[in-house]
Amino acid sequence: MQNTLECTPPHHPAPGAPLPFEGPENFRELGGWPAAGGRRVRYGLFYRCGALCEIETPADRALFAGLGVKAVCDLRSSMERAALPDPEIPGVVRHDISAILDEAGREINYDPRAFARSTPAELSEVARSMRGIYARLPFGNAAYRALFGEIQNRRLPLLFHCSAGKDRTGIAAALILLALGASRETVTEDFMLTNRCRPREAARLRQRMARQLAADPGFAPFVQAIGGVLQQNLDAALDAILARYGSFEGYFDAEYGLNAAALARLRADCLE
User: Which of 102, 126, 151, 220 is least enclosed by beta carbons within 10 angstroms?
Assistant: First the structure.
């Protein structure tokens, strides 16, 4: 796979490259990724990131304002939202809908900072449960339905985010790219770039968990699962879609009302 973090041409970042924010890490867009019919996703339409409260400096605020975001989908739980609320963004349509619910329909707090305070046993259980959570994410998800509703309404640019911009946000990005006809390889590349785009936060997590890691080096994979992303979790989500619907096209039709004609219109709008 090519290195997609080199910024060429100069007027646009390479696909998957973080935007030059001072505070937020892993603030990226989907522009430039190859998609249906040899076309590419248009720049300036879809932005993905972690908590927006990290936009603090004047330079960051100016950079964000320049994006012209018209809709925000906050995929966090209400607990995460209350702890680190988004800043006020005048004139923006908001959807504050948790993307992860338990089997009883209750919101799950999925903030990695909270996980860092867990015991080794608790963290191991969280890491082990991730694959099942990912496999449920694509189905009947009100947060993702709101996101695709805004895309179909052409309320773009659209920003979607969670606390770390990696799990809930990563699957949202994967679904958008798939709807635009991107290959599974492209979807995986965008998803896995999170592991290279959060160096400061990954270092902080390792520091917070240094005692557990020193006591048990076998604990490292669980820390990786919490601080970054694992391809096996993305595969669980995509494989679950194919197992239920047989194709990604069948999934978009059943879950979002995007039949072949609607997908073609979406691609005409969002690809170049």
Answer: 102
| Residue-level pLDDT at 8 | 35
How sure is the predictor about 220, in pLDDT bands with cuts at 50, 70 and 90?
A: confident
Kindly report the three-state secondary structure assignment for every residue of 25-91: CCCEECCCCECHHHCEECCCCEEEECCHHHCCCHHHHHHHHCCCCCEEEECCCHHHHHHCCCCCCCC
Mutual angle of helices 260-270 and 142-152, in 10-degree steps: 70
Helix (H) or strand (E) holding 103: none
Element (H, E) at 192: helix 184-192
| pLDDT > 60? residue 133 | yes
Give the integer Cα–Cα distance in Å for 57 and 63: 10
Half-sphere exposure of 111 toward its Cβ, with a 13 Å CA cutoff?
16
Q: Is residue 111 within 8 Å of 82, Cβ to Cβ?
A: no
Report how far residue 33's alpha carbon sits from residue 183's, in angstroms, rounded to the nearest whole number: 10
> Which residues touch 153 (CB under 8 Å, ≥6 apart)?
none
Nearest to 15 by CA among 150, 177, 128: 177
Altogether, the residues listed in the chain come to a count of 272
